[in-house]
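Please check the following for our workbook:

***
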Amino acid sequence: MLKAQFFCGGSALAVALSLACAPQAAAQESQVEEVVVTGSFIRGTPEDAALPVEVIGVDELQRRGSPSTVDLIKSLPVSGPVLGDTNQFSTSAQGQVGAGTVNLRGLGSLRTLVLLNGRRTVPSAGSGSGGVDTNLLPVGAIGRVEVLKEGAAATYGSDAIGGVVNFITRKNFSGLEASADYRYVPGSDGDYNAGVLWGWAGDTGNILISAGYQHRSELRSTERDWANQPYTVNPAGYSVLGQPPSFLPRNGATPVAGVQRDANCTALGGFAGFSGTTPACYFTYVPFDNLIEDEDRYQVYGEANYDLNETTRFHVEAHYAKTSIPNIRFSPSYPPTSGPNGPGSVGVFTVPRSNPGVLTALQQAGLSPAAIAATTNVSLTLFRPLGAGGNPATGGGQIGSREYDIYRISGGVTGEILGGVGYDVAVTYSQTRNTQRTTDILIDRLQRALNGLGGANCTGTTAGANGCQYFNPFSNAYPGNPALGLSNPGFVAANANDRDLVAWLFDTQVTRQRQSLFVADVVFNGELPINLGGGPVGWAAGAQYRTTEFDSRPMSDFQDARVTPCPVVGQTNCAFPTGPYIFLGQSRPTSLEDSVYALFAETNLPITDTLNAQLAVRFEDYGGQTGSTTNPKLALKWQAMDQLAFRASVGTTFRGPTPANRSPTGPTGLSGIVAAGNNFKSVDFVGNPAVGPEKALTYSVGAIFETGGFRAIVDYWSFKIEDQITSVPANVIATAVAGVGNGTQLVNCSAALRGLITFNNNDTCTQGVTTGNDIARVRSDTVNGPEINVSGIDGSVDFRLDDILGGSARLGASASYYLQYEYDEFRFNGVFVGAAYDARGFANYDRLPGTISDWRANAYAEYERGPHNLRADVTFVDGVVDNRAPISVQDATGALRAVSFGQKVEDFYTLDLNYRLQLAGDTTITASVFNVFDRDPSAARLELSYDPFVGNPYGRTYKLGVRKRF
């Protein structure tokens, strides 16, 4: 039998960590492997060493109502903005809607290393990946989570700039456990989870198998009043490219009247306003979207450990997980950013008079009989094909889907050689796959249908005959707005669009991406024959090899830029190869690979009984133009007295570029461009083979005070990041060229960054004419960007009181406060991109690093007596200021009206109550109320009118769970 020790984990936030300290858990899982704490490879490293490690155990999670991985991460004060809630409109979430991330210190999820049982797992394969998808972890098997809150590249290598989160499975579990819970969410069908865990532990080994299922139900935006605001209150969720449209009656190319706004705009929920002097019907797509998507998650995990002899143990673990999001809702159709002749949004599609909807639209607009008679065609000035009337092919908005899965296997042998030298040899292979399905209208099909030559069965060249159909682009084609329940007084049944014709307009983009990670680790550790004042010197040294492969394949010829580069399918020699879609971009098959070699060493120096030092160094070689990097680290702890200890650390850390960072091409995403009135535009992300690693100098100083049942910790921390790997922000580029406004402001065609923007009208920029709304797409290059300086203070207090009314009580609070989050001036190829700024306390919607609250905090109060446990948790997120310049919009008369909505995103806090009852027969019942005061999220000038990185859309919810041990 391998040597073992009893373990009761200390936490930076909770005095009584539940994994080993809870009586029930201790009785069944009392012996664990010799502790190797996250942040060190040296065996026996105590958790109260110099490293700031926070531990959260399974029992504590149960007492908190078994939060989801996303909710757990968001509740950590040391966590910055993370994905997992409503992120459809966040550029960083595109390609991985429904994925979860970890973002320690707000430095970005790619700067937080996520481990499973101390070993790497593959990051998400999604475009713009934010790192490891935490929603694919085997949640039912997790026994504790260790959070190392400082840079650890000297130990673990790339990605650990902000810290490490290590998810560790349960050890020596014996028996069978089944659990299920249901969360009632007003306005949806609720969320529910189920899981089963089986384990066997014998004298020479153990086995653990778990299976889990989690479901989140769809929550429509129309179920929350705060998500749907009038245009003059919050214009972010409206588009000037609307449906109902604005249109220009013409005779040939000559206007016969001014631009007309569709007469049914207001009746169908649009805002009848202006874009400059042009009448516009602003369309809100928000009612067709979801706050929470319908999601299903599945995980299966198994591990086995076997003692080969007294000192040697074999370990193997396997894991499969899948997330399915089958019905992501989008706008009924996207607005055009390209037309038959290339880039353009305004007036790029034309409708002949013979189209059945034209005459009705002209009459309803109130044109004179003479003007109507003179009209031979209509230019669709401000338009999208489908909008307020919904998509008759889907019954509402477009429907897309996402599927993510992962399989991972890891195996290794640990033991001793040469009289006490320990070794750990392991290999880990993991692969994740991402399948995205998104629909968009084909340019050529749309124009043909407007001309009466649409439909899958169309033969010949006679409009409206031989199976050819007209597509009616005006509001008289549909009976009402199905999302808002509004009727259309101008509907003409004879002009309605055929459902099959609408479906024919669309193509489904299917992109399959795969990323794999192979890691080979060799670690030796032991004690030197050197005794210092506090004991023997511990050491560890080893090597690591890892290789990453990434593969992306567009599954339709229409989305493959090599096959269909032009708006008209079959053409390959157009002047502007924008592809065949009115909105979405294209891609090419991509295969990328890189390999990294590393050597590392560390030592633990017990200088005296009260002074301990840890030294570590790591060398990593990326090859190619990226090169290599070496990073040392020193950590100290001084036990000044029994109750008081001080700790400090200093070191350098780094993050290497991903294969996508170094690719000469890249994906196309979508982003709300402030300079274009926050309308979504295409953003082309381009990699850079010469991009180098980013490096950081990190240091921290802290103190720990403990006496009786009281514990207090305070830490100061600092990160200085140089040569950060980043993309030139699309919004910064657009603002530098086109300024800030509602999209009607004039652009500076001579701006230094003009070459990174493609404008409408075949990339024409005319000084004094071209406006922000004319932006079609923005190029965003991968570069080593400006220096970042981030620092702050963490603090926590915990207090335990025994023998209180026959039970025990625990109280605690923790907080993290930013002292600074400063970006230096940004230059790209010598050209000024943006001025230096402090991101602290700002929303940063149009720039990095995203929402940074001054401080985040949580507190808890818990009372336990016999089988009863009652706990209250308060989570607080400080509000932020929207750093974007205040804007004005035109009201119904064309006059400017200032918008103050969300200029200050207010503080958000929730109170959660959890009650746990342990019944006879190893049965546990939990009941929870989350957000007891039913607080709405704070207003923000974003599409859904709230900031998902500050609040959440649920409101007050109720949860009931049961857990049974057999």
User: Anything to note?
Assistant: The longest strand covers residues 506-532. The CA atoms of residues 677 and 742 lie 4 Å apart. Confidence is low (pLDDT under 50) at residues 1-36.
